[in-house]
Amino acid sequence: MIFRQLYEPVSSTYTYLIGCDDTGQAVLVDPVINSLQRDLDEVQKLGLKLTHTLDTHIHADHITSALQLKQKAGSRIAAPAMDRLPCTDVGIEEGKLFEVGRLSFKPLHTPGHTDGHFAYVIQDRVLTGDALLIDGCGRTDFQNGDADTLYRSVTEKLFTLPEDYLIYPAHDYQDRRVSTVAQEKNRNPRLGQGKDLAQFREIMQNLNLAYPKFIDYAVPGNRQCGVCPEDLPEQLAAYCEWMAHSPQG
């Protein structure tokens, strides 16, 4: 397996390029529109053929590049079937393996951050999206999020994986790249250290997070698999171009 972790600094998003050694087929997980050319260049550099994009959920902080990658590279769009996106080519369901070449992804429905959120197990690692971050987790106060549901998703699904499995999240804001199931069970301040549901619920209720700056544009755009809305304010319009910095931070 070829595995590359790529970082997008505006939204602090990790995109994962995963390729099959035998067939040269590749998948981009959670690609970001303003990193489109970087991702295409990386695919070419490794001598791979991009056959699919795969999103963990409908993102609120960036626009996916799934649609533009389909137009430029001919890749197919894979996304959670339950989101019923009309632009999806492959609907992801729990209990049904997603296979590309000799790669086999095991989808785990992990709602709570959003109701349609999925994590993906591949070999000795799991791409946890926003459900489980390094020393944290995704927020639960929009897109049908629910703290009780997220607690069950993490403790009953992700924390029951082998403890040496590597955890690769969709974001990190402190330059951390990888964790393990054991590490998050032992030290995650929100979900680890034996936290019970009542404790987690209280933590999430008291985060007092600001309303996401980009959500009202990102969610509609991502429901179309990566379309930049026409009504973007000027200070956010640059986010849908290839750049290194944005006022979003």
UniProtKB/TrEMBL annotation:
The keyword Metal-binding applies. The keyword Transcription does not apply. Residues 12-171 form the Metallo-beta-lactamase domain. Keywords: Metal-binding. CDD domains: POD-like_MBL-fold. It holds the Pfam family Lactamase_B. InterPro entries: Metallo-B-lactamas, Mito_Persulfide_Diox, POD-like_MBL-fold, RibonucZ/Hydroxyglut_hydro. This is MBL fold metallo-hydrolase. The lineage of its organism: Bacteria, Pseudomonadati, Pseudomonadota, Gammaproteobacteria, Oceanospirillales.
